[in-house]
Design brief:
This protein has 148 residues and is α+β, with helices and mostly antiparallel strands. It has a single domain, classed as START domain (Alpha-D-Glucose-1,6-Bisphosphate, Chain A, domain 4), CATH 3.30.530. 26% of the residues lie in helices and 47% in strands. It is built from three helices and seven strands. The protein has helices at residues 15-23, 28-31, 120-144; strands at residues 3-11, 35-43, 49-58, 61-70, 76-84, 87-98, 104-114. It has a seven-stranded antiparallel beta sheet with strand order 1-7-6-5-4-3-2, with helices on one face. Helix 1 crosses helix 3. The chain is globular and about 45 Å long.
Length: 148
């Protein structure tokens, strides 16, 4: 059974900066420390990635997975797992909205199901670490990015 977790943060950068960072997949390894490589496999007519392969450090080993991205909503970056070596499901989305102070409120939702079952406390700890690290790293790079 898949587990769904949600985390929210506010980033002191406008939504277009945050979305620009999220859409720049080849640069993920520069700021997402657990990602070892990223390869864009397919793009849409606007040049946005629709299928991306990732190699990441996970649970003491290297894991590979491919995500299919949906760009149907302007302030949402959503994905579903297309292929994974240790995951059955790795679906999620970032929902961006302008905050009152000119920054961005970010809601990160992730649904994960592993091929090998893990004890509940290990899954919860791992999910929390993944989500917290992803948002902290995104926040750090977005807040360092100059705005026009």
């Amino acid at each position: 059974m898949a587990d769904r977790v949600t985390e929210t943060t506010t980033i002191a950068a406008p939504p277009e900066v945050v979305l620009g960072i999220l859409l720049d997949f080849p640069r993920y390894p520069e700021w997402a420390r657990d990602l070892k490589s990223v390869e864009v496999l397919a793009t849409d007519d606007e040049g946005r990635a629709t299928e991306v392969r990732f190699r990441a450090a996970g649970m003491g080993r290297s894991t590979s997975y491919t995500l299919a991205y949906d760009h149907g909503e302007p302030d949402v970056l959503a994905w579903v797992l297309a292929e994974g070596d240790i995951t059955r499901k790795l679906d999620g989305r970032y929902v961006l909205s302008p905050s009152a102070d000119g920054g961005t409120d970010v809601v990160y939702e992730l649904e994960v199901e592993l091929v090998v079952p893990l004890p509940g406390f290990v899954k919860r700890r791992t999910q929390g670490k993944i989500m917290h690290a992803a948002l902290d790293e995104l926040k750090a790079v977005a807040e360092r990015t100059p705005t026009a």
